[in-house]
Amino acid sequence: MTKHGCACVFEINFYLQRPSENTIRTINNYQWWQSRRIKLVISVIVLAIVIITLSLVLKFVILAPKKSETTTGTTITTASTPSITTELYSTATTTTTTPTTTTPTTTTTSNEQSVWRQAGNLNHARYRHAASVLTDGKVLVTGGFSGSYQLDSAELYDPTTDNWTLTGNMNIERELHTASLLTNGRVLVVGGESAHGYTDVAELYDPSTGMWTVIATMQQARAEHTETVLPNGKVLVAGGFNGASHLDNAELYDPSTETWTNTSDMNVGREHHTACVLKDGRVLVAGGGNHPYENSAELYDPLTEIWSFTGNMTTGRERHTATVLEDGKVLVTGGAHDQMSSAELYDPATETWTAINAMKQTRFDHTASVLANGKVLIAGGYIVDVLDSAELYDPFTESWIAAANMNHIRTDHVAFVLANGKVLVAGGYDNTAMNAAELYELL
Ligand SMILES: *[C@@H]1O[C@H](CO)[C@@H](O)[C@H](O)[C@H]1NC(C)=O
Ligand SMILES: *[C@@H]1O[C@H](CO)[C@@H](O)[C@H](O)[C@H]1NC(C)=O
Ligand SMILES: *[C@@H]1O[C@H](CO)[C@@H](O)[C@H](O)[C@H]1NC(C)=O
């Protein structure tokens, strides 16, 4: 019995059985006394168990809401222990503030599982600047407006370090100019507004030296024009504003002779229009102008150097975007003219425009970038207020999907697709010139 009792792991039982071993005669008395003690001990055990379970239950009550608190910190209901609730609220506030302080870079994710992350800041805040992706994958940002004056500074974004470094200054400060990467790896910057007015000065950036060289001046001073690299390597500069009129003049830069020559004039004078190279090598120019906004579009054929009207857009617009999709059609979005959210598609085969679903947000001076998955990312812009909203056009469903909002509101910014698939958005205007840059990436 004793052995059996000792076999019991309960330490209290073992202690109780010791007196029964020593005094066998008075076993009955001891048994009564013992049984009472057992009762006592059992009640103590039961009490202990009750206390343990109570504390466990309390712990669950305390711990469970703590975990779900990040979403709803105010919905905790522990009326029995007010001291605990205050403690809970204090922990709730710390848990909700830490994510915002430790990771200010991430914002809300969209149903596209994408995110905007803060990138390194530009050295100089700027808007109405121009940018191009170099052959080594870096992004060259040039000029722009500081808020009080035009900039001649240029800087390079390195996607591998996520920072910006100043490179050589341009020879002319400018805003509302254009920049494009030539087939020889250099960047051609032309026109814009300088401190001395509309400029015809063109210059070349050499990435190997980081230096700028002024080249032959254009035939026409202009800003708010378009600059398009043709399949033959020449550069078409078209339209714009020279302070007096909306220009129909267009000219060609030949990198092999480093000269400018007039090509035929467009049929319509345009500024703030768009130009893009179709898959067949022709250039589609659309919209632009000012009161009335042009609904017309025309095609430039690099072989004949002739402009010819193509189908009219469904509406007049300027400060819109035009993007060549993977299937060769051209997506045009938004723009200024009655605050537009409308979008349309140009089909080069039929030379016609078809209205598609409107964007979720009315905007102009926004950016459009074709992602690796074929979707088009629309970001920022202006309408009454500067926008932080972004949305995606899905060419396969011809519909618009909300994307995560940018970390900053911005308009008059630049956006470029990097070799790593991310979209870099840099600078712009958020009621003042901005130096903030951010990256859009799919998760
Ligand atoms: C940018 O990154 C490079 C390489 O890591 C580093 O040498 C340079 O100091 C960085 N510049 C800034 C401004 O952080
Ligand atoms: C080129 O066109 C511009 C604007 O129409 C004109 O002022 C200029 O004289 C032309 N250049 C030549 C060489 O014809
Ligand atoms: C295009 O629109 C203009 C008015 O902006 C109109 O005069 C012209 O006839 C239109 N062209 C076609 C082909 O509908």
TrEMBL record:
Region: Disordered, residue numbers: 91-113
InterPro entries referenced in this protein's UniProt entry, alphabetically: Gal_Oxase/kelch_b-propeller (IPR011043), Kelch-typ_b-propeller (IPR015915), Kelch_1 (IPR006652)
Q: Ranges of Low complexity compositional bias?
A: 91-109
Which residue ranges run through the membrane?
A: 40-62
Reading the lineage from the top rank, the first entry is: Eukaryota
Pfam families xref list? Kelch_1 (PF01344), Kelch_KLHDC2_KLHL20_DRC7 (PF24681)
**UniProt KW keywords:** Kelch repeat, Membrane, Repeat, Transmembrane, Transmembrane helix
UniProt-recorded name of the protein: Kelch repeat-containing protein
Supply the source organism for this entry.
Didymodactylos carnosus
